[in-house]
Design brief:
- The protein has 585 residues and is an all-alpha fold.
- The chain has a domain of 190 residues: Leucine-rich Repeat Variant (Alpha Horseshoe).
- The protein has 32 helices and 2 strands.
- Helix 23 packs across helix 25.
- The relative contact order is 0.03.
Length: 585
């Protein structure tokens, strides 16, 4: 039998070996008046919840411990213990609230929506709001925001309830009093609150975005910056024009460009250092070799793991920044013009050499949005002045191993060609435009084929209209044919399930008298689509022998009557109607 105030071996709560079988014992300890026993009981419950990937919520809810934990963080728990030391009692209270909020927050991080609703019904949100308002130290403040973030992530309804209770106001009021590590956690929790669900009420977003833009401008912590940028990007998705105007007025463009320029500068430094390692020639001396090997080990291999993590974070930062810039470039011309004035073309030119494929894709996407604004404002020459940029875009549009980047780079070329002058068209052609378009046709995607053909059509038309000579056929058309473009269109017709009239009209326009082509294409049509194929031939100036072949082939499948425009039967004309009756087997 233990003496009063002492724990027997059977009653002692061993936190490090907490098991679910002993849950009732932990709850009994929490209900006691012994401060240390209460603390150990709460710590044991927290360990049970945190140790499992899926918290044992059924057992926790059945034990009755959840309302007690909520009372603790709500200041409704009776903290009076057998101690008369007020400082000790306050210390125990702070530790209890920390452990209780930790346990509850992990419970809210589970997968079951019904369990989360039960937590909310028990007063979870109100409890964490009380902790947020009355937190006595940064750690408790961080736990309060984390707990709200976990439950907000589960439901728009829960998130809106939290925001309408004024959580954002309290967070912004206190966040700058926190040390860096705590501030990082708070911003991460804010990201959970705002993630994936754009808030329609501007008043619930505006103060946060203004704060985050300032934070990004001043912070040197990459994790904090990345989380802040992700929130800004996510919350710019509704009322796009209004919100983009707001973040532009807050100075977001200069902040983002500074970040990207810094990252590009650090990247260039790393490339210079690597170049030095590759190219420096050392004297063949034993002492020199020892010095080089030892220093190379300590200064290269040891920090390599950290460097990889840092590089990944830098890539995340760049991608988050580019998503915001992409939203701006998708806005009005006046909004996109802000990017142009700040030098977006220089930024893009550098980022297209980035090692991360997603960064390249985003950079091409932004450029494809910027080019139409340049065209609209008669500034397309700014793009064509960037010779390296054009060369890189053409190269990316021809890289088969990175389809998303290739597609966005192709969009850039297509947009540039649509409004290019004759001289600018020649620059694109000399850079490999026709090669790039032919290779894009080979992707055989329904969206890309019409765009590539329209761009080629624009290119060929510009030559025809502005060339000083009257060379026939068009040398650019000949170049496409030499590159296999015409044969490729034949192959595409065989499998294309889109609107074949686009391909038909293109071929008819630039190869109007190629009877052998007509015959080849016709033979490749499946009999089931002959009816659809007939209009294909009406745009060609067909020789009589070719037309006879076509009609003979049709007649093997259909009884048909050839009727000219005057209604005379059996006379072969270039403008014909074909009336079909399906043969009976």
């Amino acid at each position: 039998m233990s003496q009063p105030g002492e724990e027997s071996k059977e009653e002692a709560v061993e936190v490090s070996t907490a098991t679910l079988d002993d849950l009732d014992k932990y709850v009994a300890a929490i209900k006691s008046k012994d401060g240390n026993k209460i603390l150990k009981g709460v710590e044991a419950v927290r360990e049970l919840v945190s140790a499992e990937v899926v918290p044992p919520m059924e057992e926790m809810l059945a034990s009755g411990v959840v309302p007690i934990l909520i009372d603790m963080i709500s200041n409704k728990f009776d903290y009076s213990t057998d101690t008369t030391d007020k400082a000790l009692e306050d210390d125990i209270k702070g530790k209890l609230q920390f452990q209780a909020s930790w346990a509850l927050s992990d419970m809210a991080g589970g997968d079951e929506e019904d369990h989360k609703k039960e937590l909310v019904d028990m007063g979870y949100i109100e409890g964490f709001m009380s902790l947020l308002k009355n937190a006595t130290n940064p750690e408790l403040f961080s736990q309060a925001v984390s707990g709200l973030g976990n439950i907000a992530f589960a439901s728009v309804q829960f998130r809106d309830q939290i925001l309408h209770l004024g959580a954002l106001e309290y967070i912004l009021k206190n966040i700058d009093t926190c040390p860096l590590e705590i501030k990082r956690k708070v911003v991460s929790s804010l990201r959970a609150i705002y993630k994936n669900r754009t808030i329609s009420e501007w008043k619930q977003v505006a103060p946060l975005l203004q704060y985050l833009i300032g934070l990004v401008a001043q912070s040197t912590d990459i994790e904090t910056i990345v989380d802040a940028l992700c929130i800004i990007e996510q919350q710019s998705g509704v009322d796009l024009s209004l919100r983009i105007d707001a973040i532009l007025e807050a100075g977001i463009v200069s902040v983002l460009f500074k970040l990207l320029q810094q990252d590009c500068g650090q990247k260039n430094k790393r490339q210079v250092y690597f170049s030095l390692y590759k190219n420096v020639t050392f004297c063949i001396d034993l002492r020199c070799v020892v010095w080089v090997v030892s220093n190379f080990f300590f200064f290269f291999f040891l920090p390599m793991g950290k460097a990889k993590a840092t590089n990944k974070l830098h890539a995340e930062l760049v991608k988050a920044a580019l998503l915001i810039i992409g939203s701006i470039s998708s806005g009005t011309n006046s909004q996109t013009q802000k990017l142009i004035e700040r030098g977006i073309l220089d930024i893009i030119d550098t980022l297209l050499d980035h090692s991360d494929k997603k960064v390249k894709e985003q950079a091409c996407w932004i450029l494809s949005n910027v080019i139409p604004t340049l065209e609209e404002d008669r500034q397309l020459h700014l793009f064509f002045e960037k010779k390296h940029l054009i060369k890189t875009i053409v190269e990316l549009s021809r890289q088969r191993n990175i389809p998303p980047v290739r597609k966005e780079a192709g969009w850039c070329l297509i947009n540039a060609m649509s409004s290019a002058s004759f001289e600018q068209m020649n620059e694109l052609v000399n850079a490999g435009f026709i090669e790039a378009m032919v290779e894009l046709l080979d992707t055989r995607t329904n969206k890309i084929i019409p765009l590539a053909l329209n761009a080629l059509d624009s290119c060929f038309d510009k030559y025809t209209q502005h060339a000083n000579d009257n060379i026939n056929p068009n040398p650019l058309v000949q170049k496409m044919e030499e590159l296999g473009g015409l044969n490729l269109l034949e192959d595409i017709l065989e499998v294309y399930d889109g609107d074949i009239s686009i391909i038909k009209n293109f071929i008819a326009k630039y190869w109007p008298e190629d009877d052998s082509l007509v015959t080849k294409i016709f033979l490749k049509f499946d009999k089931s689509i002959i009816r659809k194929a007939i209009p294909f031939f009406t745009n060609f100036a067909l020789k009589k022998t070719t037309l006879h072949f076509v009609l003979k082939y049709i007649n093997n499948i259909y009884y048909c009557t050839i009727i000219d425009i005057n209604g005379n039967e059996n006379e072969i004309k270039s403008d014909i109607n074909v009336q079909f009756t399906k043969k009976q087997k």
